[in-house]
Amino acid sequence: MGLLDRAAVRLLESLRLRVPARIAGTAQGGHKSPMLNTGVEFADHRAYIPGDDIRQIDWKAFARHKQLILRTFTEERDARIYVLLDTSASMSRGTPSKLDVGKQIAASFAYLGMKQYDRVLTMPFAADLGASSPAMRTKNELPVLEGILAPLEADGMTSFQSTVRAFAERYPTKGFVVIVSDLMHLSDLDEQVRTLGRFGHHVCVVRVSCKEDDDPPFRGEIEVLDAETGQKVRLTATKQLVDAYKKEVRTHIGRCRDACVRVGGRLVEASVEQPLDKLLKQVLAVAAEGA
Predict the structure, then answer these.
(1) Hey, CA dihedral for 17, 22, 25, 31, is it positive or negative?
(2) Which domain holds residue 60?
(3) Number of domains present in the structure of the chain
(4) Sign of the CA dihedral running 183, 184, 186, 187
(5) Staple 33 to which of 56, 77, 88, 141, CB 3.0 to 4.6 Å?
(6) Higher pLDDT, 240 or 27
(7) Does residue 156 sit within a domain?
(8) Which residues are bridge partners to 288 per DSSP?
(9) Residues 105, 107: Cα–Cα separation, whole Å
(10) Residue 223 CA to chain centroid, in angstroms?
(11) 231-263 confidence digits (pLDDT tens)
């Protein structure tokens, strides 16, 4: 079975990805372009200007008002959907693992884009940006995408600065950027999200978490291992220390959320302990609409 079961696909079939018109592309796709042209859906009327295409004159309106009025239409344009999946070592934690759930979320966003004939590219990142999938534009390519995502393993440290720099160099065309990560080592997310915003991208961050991230059950003398650096630290996990840790996590996530909002984007939480259908509804509620 692939990353998305039949129930998940049925849910995705009922949704559309909301993509801002400013990032619509140039090829035919499933999004309304802000440009008025001779497309397929009526938008409005405007006064005729000499030199306009006379085929767009509304002759019925002329018969009523004795004025030459032009019909305008919206074009359907495609968009670039970039899905960046964190594959650093900290994503191995949780049951199921944060990486396994992250793959399902990444595949879901990609599917929504592909069924709208957008150009979807998915790519892993950790210390740097990994190789991208081929651009995919139809939902029939889901098995190919699942075959690319499924073998990915959690390993290495996270450097979002290096990731964003490499992304900006490879992909100058603005688009809808989805970042799927546990945000455990993204202290510079604020600055990098601003960078993506300056390049004209629309940003959606999905924070994948497990219960241990937000409310560690540890008490007493413990040895803590940093999954990404391998560093070990011995400490006494008192209630005060755990409470301070939980407060720091909430503050960090709050800063990440504010960074997204400042560039017109969103941050949404996704806990691995949730059933897949409930999780996808929660995550996609901020980026999708009923078909």
Answers:
(1) positive
(2) 31-76
(3) 2
(4) positive
(5) 77
(6) 240
(7) yes
(8) 17
(9) 5
(10) 35
(11) 777 777 788 888 898 999 999 999 999 999 999
